[in-house]
Amino acid sequence: MRTHYSAQLEPTMDGKLVKVAGWVNDIRILGKIAFINLRDREGYIQLTFPKSKVGELFDELKKVTKETVVSAEGIVKANKEAPRGIEIIPQSMKIISKAKAPLPMDFSGKINSELETRLNARFMDLRNPRVAAVFSIRDSLLTGVREFMDDNDFIEVHTPKIVATGAEGGATLFPVKYFNEKAYLSQSPQLFKQVLMATNFDRVYEIGPAFRAEKSDTTRHLSEFTSFDFEMAFIDSMEDVMSLMEQMIVSVVEHLNKNVSDELDLLGILLDPPKLPFKRITFDEARNLLERKSMDVGEDLDTESEKALGEIMAKRGYDFYFITEFHSDVRPFYIMERDDVHCHSFDLDYRGSELSSGGQREHRYEHLVRRMKKQNLNPKDFEFYLNAFKYGMPPHGGMGLGVERFVQKLLNLPNVREAVLFPRDRYRLVP
Ligand code: ATP
Ligand code: MG
What we know:
With about 425 residues, the protein is α+β, with helices and mostly antiparallel strands. Helix content is about 30%, strand content about 25%. The radius of gyration is 27 Å and the shape is elongated.
C-alpha cells in the first residue's frame, strides 16, 4: 500500500511519485485548499489538496473524519511552509477504514487523559507516539538483555506456567482448575531453573509471564508481569551473580542509548551509563542509616524505607545499588543461609525501588529440607524439585527481575501499568 513511511520522505525527493498510508491525524478544509496531516508509525506527512489541481478528490475530503485510515498516491513537493519542508500533492486517495466520531479519547497529549480511560481505549492510546515509544524502548531493552545473555553463554529456556506448587509463598497464588487436579499459575520460574542447574545447562535464562495475586493496589504491582530470570551454576558466591547482573544493566543501558535514542529523547529521558561496580550495602548497614533518620525498620525493607534509602543513596551519587545479606527469615526457602541471622541474598534497587531479588541458592539437600520445614513447607509438595538435589547439584545462584518495573523506573513512569500493553491488576481483566 505504501512506497515510503513518512519519515523516509525528504525535500530532495521533489517531483517523485510516492504512495503513503496511515491515519488522518488532522484535516483542515479552507475554501480552495485542504490539508491532511497523515500519521504512520514513523511520523507525519502533509497531504496538500489544491482544489484546482485535485478536482473531484476535493469533495471526497468532506467524508474524511479524524483517525480515518487512508492511502494516497501523489507527487512529492518541497515546500518551506510545510512541516519538515515537504508535502505531497495527491493524484488519488482511498478511504480505507472510516473512523467514527467522536473518538473514545483524546490521545494528542493536549488533554491529559486519565490512565483508566487510556487503558480502556488502549488501541487508540497507543497511537500517541510518546506512548508507543515506551514499547519500542521495552522491545529494545529485551533485545539488549538477550544479546548480553547470549554473549555470556546462557541459553534461553521456557518453563511451565501451570504448576502444582508455588515458589514465592501461598498468599499470591492464582488457583487454576486443571482437569481433576488443583493447579496454580506460576509465580516465577524459580524451581524449574534450579532443577536445570543439575543438568548440562549450567547457565539458563527465561523471559516469560509470572502471575501474582497481589491483593494491594499499588503503582508497581501487576497480577501478571514479565519476569526476566537467570540462574548460573558453579559459582563461588553470590558475588558472581551480582557481577554478571551489573554488567548486564550497563550493557542494556548502552544498547538503549545506541538503538532508541530518538524514543528516549521524545520522552525526555537521559540515561547515564551507570559506573561499575554498583554500590553494595548490607541490609544491616541500610537499616542503621534509616534508623538514624528515625525510621523504624523491621527485618525487611517496606516501600517507604526503600524510598528513603533511595534518597540517601542518590545523595551519595548512586542510582543503582545492591542491598545484600538480608535476614534469612524474610527470604524464600531456597536461599542459602550465611549465619544464624543472615543469608546470601540481595536486592538490586534503582532510585528507591526494588528491581530485582537474587542470591546464592541452597544446593545441599539436607540444608534445603531443613529450611523448608523451618518455613512450614511440606517437602513432599516439592518432590520433583528436591529430587534434582539428590544426584549431584552444583552450587548455583541467580535472580529475577520485573521487566515492567525496570521499564517503569528507567523511563520514570508514574505507574507500572504504563509499561504493559494490556495490564492485569485486581480490577482489570479487560481489554
Ligand atoms: P516487591 O517486594 O516489590 O513486591 P517481591 O520481593 O515480592 O517484590 P520477587 O519475588 O523478589 O518480588 O520478584 C522479583 C522481581 O519481580 C521484583 O524485584 C520485581 O521487579 C518483580 N515483581 C514481583 N512482583 C511483581 C508484581 N506483582 N508486579 C510487577 N513486578 C513484580
Ligand atoms: Mg524481592
